[in-house]
Amino acid sequence: MDFRQDLIDIVNKSGAHPASGVNHCLRVYHLAKELSNSLILDDEVLYTASMLHDTGKYPIYSLKNVDHALRSKGVTSNILQQMMFSPIKLPIVLDAVENHMYYSEPGRSDEAVYLRDSDILDNFGNIGLMRLFSLVGQDELIMTTENAVDRARLFADALPHKVSTKAGKRLAVKRREETLRFLAGIKRQTAEFAWL
Fold first, then answer.
1. What is the torsional sign of CA 44, 47, 53, 57?
2. Which of 10, 23, 112, 144 has its CA 20 to 30 A from that of 196?
3. What are the structural domain ranges in the chain?
4. 159: which residues sit within 8 A by CB, 6+ positions away?
5. pLDDT tens digits for 3-62?
6. What is the pTM of this model?
């Protein structure tokens, strides 16, 4: 079987919520390629890290009170060693997975930097809003639509400053504007959020 399809199958069988499942992983991968189009990245490393970066939050792999990025690193290491993944590329993938969160410093490789920026960017703007509202009632931090609105505001304010590449920063401005337009419209249509 094809290695890339194997990774898709792993995510599909993990119990991942659609907001953080295969389509999220594929968007992160393709956005990282788009943002880094002037560089030559190791495509196998980028694809693998993109597909497995959130495994630690998926029901089949998650552990209570363990940061999902660290858990993802451990899960990814086990999966890739079983798949006989290149021992030279494995540390690069693991660094990218461990450091993909907005609260982490970017990893050491270009693949890690672009993976992190792309993951951050997938959390706001139109696509981020869609993901956020699909999690209402499914995530302990987003139990109500009010929680989702608050998180959208937080993401619009904080996440653009976490992006580190020039191309990512340009896109962050656009996605922030998309988020703010949405929030302004919702505010108008719900009597200052009273009718959410």
1. negative
2. 23
3. 1-110, 123-196
4. 102, 120, 121, 123, 124, 172, 176
5. 999 999 999 999 999 999 999 999 999 999 999 999 999 999 999 999 999 999 999 999
6. 0.95
